[in-house]
Structure prediction request, 257 residues.
Amino acid sequence: MTSTELVHLEKERGVATLTLDSPQNRNALSAQLRSELWERLQEALNDDAVRVIVLTHTGPVFCAGADLKEARQPGGQKGSTDDFLAVLDALWQSGKPVVARLSGPARAGGLGLMAACDFAVATDSTTFAFTEVRIGVVPAVISVPLQARVIPHALHRYFLTGETFDARRAVEIGLLTAAVSGENLDAEVRRLTDDLILGAPGALARTKELLHASAPSLLESLKTMQAVSKAYFSSSEGQEGVRAFSEKRTPSWIPAG
Prediction:
């Protein structure tokens, strides 16, 4: 039996749109979704007719981060997460500009996807949070692209507190390119992609190389942080946090009373 496709690819006027379509679990980064996202992204990158890539979603949530149902399995997350590293690296290294389009919240790993894109546009009602520490894990892998996007003191605060912040604040700290009303979201994304298509493909690709020239190897940094992430997902704290989240109860490390 063929499983339902979770990531769709559409191409129009030089723009390839990748759509996360797993709303039943808030577009969480399941093994299937990660694999399909990698495959569709490669197709878009290898098509010379594609000039710009847009990453978007169906349902009310852009991406909730790791699939915690899979994370409850022995050993932590299901399967290898190498494909997620590959996706982040491909988005970051892409010679074609990439725009994230959000009409709903992003959490944890979803913010990593955003940060790996060149631009991120969201509705002004969108909220964000790095929820990892609240379930006993570490925002390790996503810290790599985020440290290149978000001002340090803000990242320090939101990584440690796990608190929710709004789109206006996300623009202030560098996470978002723009926050607009829901009715203007598509027009703003279209304006941005129209501007990007005016650039010569080779010049855009070389300019991105220049912009990343001073940064350390993203993939090597991602691999280092992957080990940290795996260790915490399989740790006693991580497993307790994931169970508590699933069971809608307070994790054991929070004092009673």
User: Anything to note?
Assistant: The chain has eleven helices and nine strands.
